[in-house]
Amino acid sequence: MAALFSCCFACCGDNNSGHVTLKEMPTVQLDTHHMGTDVVIVKSGRRICGTGGCIANAPLHQNKSYFEFKIQSTGVWGLGVATKKANLNQIPMGRDPHSLVLRQDGTVYHNNEEKNRLPANSLPQEGDIVGVSYDHVELNLYLNGKNMSCPASGIRGTVYPVVYVDDSAILDCQFSDFYHTPPQGYQKILFEQQIF
């Protein structure tokens, strides 16, 4: 009888309830461990202000990723993809092989070379939503849900969403629950555990 009670207490006691605790999947957000020294991240890792850049906490592992940025306040800004080797204190980004970004003037830069340019009269303004799709070869841009037909490529390695700001710019990141429907076949960024 004593053996029965000790088994019951061992299985049902506070220290070993027999229940498996489920871990919550992490949320994709801006990574405060990988940002410029004068960057401020607020709103649960979704808003960037200050001066400098920041990458997201999840790399783009799946075949087709999509994410968005809302321009809350204009100034100097850029967005796109970058490796962890990118200099997040150097504004504007796109000057080295570690970042591929759309700049506020509508140019897309990688390795200090203009790779493409938004169509005339399509510069993002305050309140606009800029979508980014990436398929490990090509980055494409969307303005308020419309494809800008402005592909760019050239970056190599493991990349992350990146955004930079200066001169009073404020941008919000949207890594899920998008304002606009992603292009066909593209989806929100998934952590590696979610892919398998």
Task: Chart the SSEs and their pairings.
Elements: H1 2-12, E1 30-35, E2 38-42, E3 47-56, E4 65-73, E5 76-82, E6 99-103, E7 107-110, E8 113-117, E9 129-134, E10 138-143, E11 146-147, E12 152-153, E13 160-166, E14 170-174, H2 192-195
Antiparallel strand pairs: 1-3, 2-3, 3-13, 3-14, 4-9, 4-14, 5-6, 5-13, 6-7, 7-8, 9-10, 10-11, 10-12
| Topology, number of strands | 14
Measure the end-to-end span.
47 Å
- Secondary-structure element order, N to C: HEEEEEEEEEEEEEEH
As a whole number of angstroms, the C-alpha radius of gyration is 21 Å
Average pLDDT works out at 90
Q: In DSSP terms, counting alpha (H) and pi (I) runs of 4 or more, how many helices?
A: 2
The secondary-structure class comes to: mainly beta
Low-confidence stretches: 4-14
Write structural notes for this entry:
With 196 residues, the protein is mainly beta. It contains two helices and 14 strands. The protein has helices at 2-12, 192-195, and strands at residues 30-35, 38-42, 47-56, 65-73, 76-82, 99-103, 107-110, 113-117, 129-134, 138-143, 146-147, 152-153, 160-166, 170-174. Strands 1, 2, 3, 4, 5, 6, 7, 8, 9, 10, 11, 12, 13 and 14 form a 14-stranded antiparallel beta sheet that branches. Strand 6 and strand 7 (107-110) form a beta hairpin. The protein is globular. Residues 4-14 have low confidence and may be disordered.
